[in-house]
Design brief:
single chain; about 475 residues; alpha/beta; Beta-Lactamase; Rossmann fold; Helicase, Ruva Protein, domain 3; 4 domains; 5-stranded antiparallel sheet; 5-stranded parallel sheet; ATP binding
Length: about 475
């Protein structure tokens, strides 16, 4: 689904006066409209939370969603909320073509606004058709479902929105990013967005995986008898295969200097010279390169040619690491969980505490590391639930060593005077989050802080405490 489609979806559900609350098939909230928070009085963003945790925190008295997941049928319940209102909540299952549950869409209508229950049910049935039409165009786990890109991060969405325009050109692209962020996927999408996907192939070359003694002949090919052990008839190189298509040179920073000169010549003249050959061959190739290294620093050190760097860096694309796009961790985890449950014929789900630990981990290996961790958990899990104890030790250990950014700021500036208001807010945040982590629900957390629950909820909202509040039920 394009970025514009995502905006349209949000506008559509926010135009509905009734509360809308959408969960995935496992019971995690993936979207809601503004009316839902207004009617219910729930003071925190519930996206990413499991409905059971809302019951545990006394934010809802019951759940239509859980009944729909259990029965696979439409369910209506009268539910009480923190706002003091009672609402008729109708949960509607949404299935794929194979009959598998995809989403549960709940309609929340304040009973005080209804004249009779009969009118409400009639109204609910009418809206049900409208919501199903909306969901046909909504994929909660991706910006573009056909491209299998899973992101809610604004920076990543901006990159995806630019891909069609970049793909239409033949300009050289240099993708910057740490290992595991998805540079290869972005490169392949660029090819798919271009006319070259019709005329030619997408050829990936991992410059770090080919020995330096072989990389020239692998890239450019060779003539018969060019060297000892060469085929008598010669061999076409990988760049030959990319003719009229796209050559993706991954880890371009590992390319030896002598080959950097030869690649520069190809970019300038659009011709290649095979090893042992005398006649240049014309080529029509679009180059997309990627690196996890600082090429500008390598230029200064003399290990990467400046002229080649400028030739490659016509359109730079910088992919942020996973630790800088925390919003994506939840959706990626569920996406990988679905993938590997299907692969290994398992049926598993994460308990909230385990999901929160994944969220807090820094993921130095980025998306690739997350994918590998989820696969390992699916393979080794002995029950239907993945708990915090099942996670790798480094993830559990990192989760215990999280430093709150406000407190870290005070530590780093301890020799400077901090505004009293900021210091008080930072201290309040630390105390509230610690109480939420150490107590089973909001009520006991409020008691530990010697404040009433309404004061706690108000301070959570004021301080923007969402993740800590979401973990209250996990301790």
């Amino acid at each position: 689904m394009s970025g514009n489609m995502g905006i349209t979806f949000r506008v559509m559900i926010n135009s509905i006066s009734d509360g809308i609350y959408i969960c995935n098939s496992q019971g995690y909230c993936i979207a809601h409209n503004d009316a839902f928070l207004r009617i219910t009085g729930i003071p925190i963003d519930v996206v990413g939370r499991h409905v059971k945790t809302l019951i545990d925190d006394n934010l809802i008295s019951d759940s239509a969603t859980l009944e729909v997941i259990r029965s696979g049928q439409r369910v209506s319940k009268v539910i009480s909320y923190p706002s003091g209102c009672e609402a008729l909540v109708t949960g509607n299952p949404s299935f794929d073509e194979e009959g598998n549950l995809i989403n549960v869409v709940c309609e929340v209508r304040d009973l005080s606004e209804l004249s009779t229950l009969k009118d409400e049910l009639k109204y609910s049935n009418q809206l049900n058709k409208q919501y199903r039409e909306i969901l046909k165009n909504y994929d909660p786990t991706s910006v573009n479902s056909s491209q299998k890109i899973t992101t809610r991060d604004p920076k990543m969405r901006s990159i995806l929105d630019e891909l069609p325009r970049i793909g239409d050109s033949d300009a050289t692209v240099l993708i910057h990013g740490e290992s595991g962020v998805g540079k290869g996927l972005i490169a392949s999408l660029l090819h798919e967005h271009s006319n070259r996907s019709i005329k030619g192939k997408f050829i990936k070359v991992d410059c770090s995986a080919i020995p330096s003694s072989l990389i020239e002949s692998e890239l450019f090919g060779y003539e018969g008898g060019a060297f000892t052990g060469a085929r008598r008839e010669g061999k076409a190189g990988l760049l030959d295969k990319a003719n009229h298509g796209t050559a993706f040179l991954d880890e371009i920073g590992e390319l030896p200097l002598f080959l950097q000169v030869k690649l520069l010549s190809v970019l300038q003249d659009h011709k290649i010279l095979r090893v042992g050959g005398n006649t240049p061959l014309s080529m029509d190739i679009r180059f997309v390169c990627a690196t996890n290294r600082d090429l500008e620093k390598m230029v200064d050190e003399g290990t990467f040619r400046k002229d080649l760097f400028y030739r490659l860096n016509v359109i730079p694309v910088v992919i942020p690491p996973l630790r800088e796009r925390k919003e994506d961790i939840f959706m990626l985890t569920l996406s990988f969980l679905d993938k590997f449950c299907q692969k290994y014929h398992r049926s598993l789900s994460f308990v909230p505490e385990a999901m929160d630990s994944l969220y807090e981990y820094s993921w130095p290996g980025n998306v690739r590391e997350l994918e590998n961790v989820v696969e390992r958990l699916v393979v080794l899990s002995q029950t239907g639930l993945i708990e915090k104890a099942d996670l790798p030790e480094k993830i559990r250990r990192a989760n215990q060593a999280v430093v709150l950014p406000e407190i870290d700021l005070i530590r780093r500036k301890e020799r400077k005077i901090i505004p009293l208001k900021a210091a008080v807010a930072a201290t309040e945040r630390q105390s509230i989050e610690r109480a939420l982590q150490q107590n089973i629900n909001l009520g006991s957390a409020a008691q530990a802080l010697s404040i009433d629950i309404s004061t706690l909820l108000r301070k959570c909202k004021k301080l923007g405490i969402t993740r800590a509040a979401a973990s209250a039920e996990m301790r």
